Structures are given as C-alpha cells and as structure tokens.
Amino acid sequence: MAVLIDPPAWPGHGRLWSHLVSDVSYAELHAFAARIGAPRRGFDRDHYDVPSELYAKAVRAGAEEVGSKELLRRLKAAGLRRPKRAAGAD
C-alpha cells in the first residue's frame, strides 16, 4: 500500500514531469498530492502529473520511487487504472 512516483522524464510545457499514483485509493492519492502542494488540476484520470520541482518533496513525504513500468503495473494490479478512451468510442 503506497503512493508511487516515477522519475521526471515526461516533457511538457518546457519542463519534465513525473506521474504520482496510489495503489490503494484515489482518496489517498488526492490527500498526498495536497500535502506536497500538487494542484488538483494536475490530476488526470488516475494519476497526478507532478513537475520535476516537486519530485524530491514527494519522495521526502513518503512516495516510493519506481520506474514507469512498475508504476503502471502496480496501478493496474490495484484496479485503479483508468485508460484514455479511444477517439470516437462514445
């Protein structure tokens, strides 16, 4: 049972980003994100996009550092993965 973070390797808007997830619940994820100062607008379906500037703070607050593949594996195993819908899938 953990909050997980992958390395800041995802480019966007002139910076690098990490993904922050919980393998327990969205409530745990939202509470943790608020504690480290990640804005709610950073939440995207099942994870927070966290700028590299918050990475160390997240780790100090208890986020477990994992690779991107491990993060996704554990998110799926917890049943919390919400993939994007394909265009026109409605």
TrEMBL record:
InterPro entries: DUF4031 (IPR025109). Residues 3-77 form the DUF4031 domain. This is DUF4031 domain-containing protein. It comes from Streptomyces javensis.
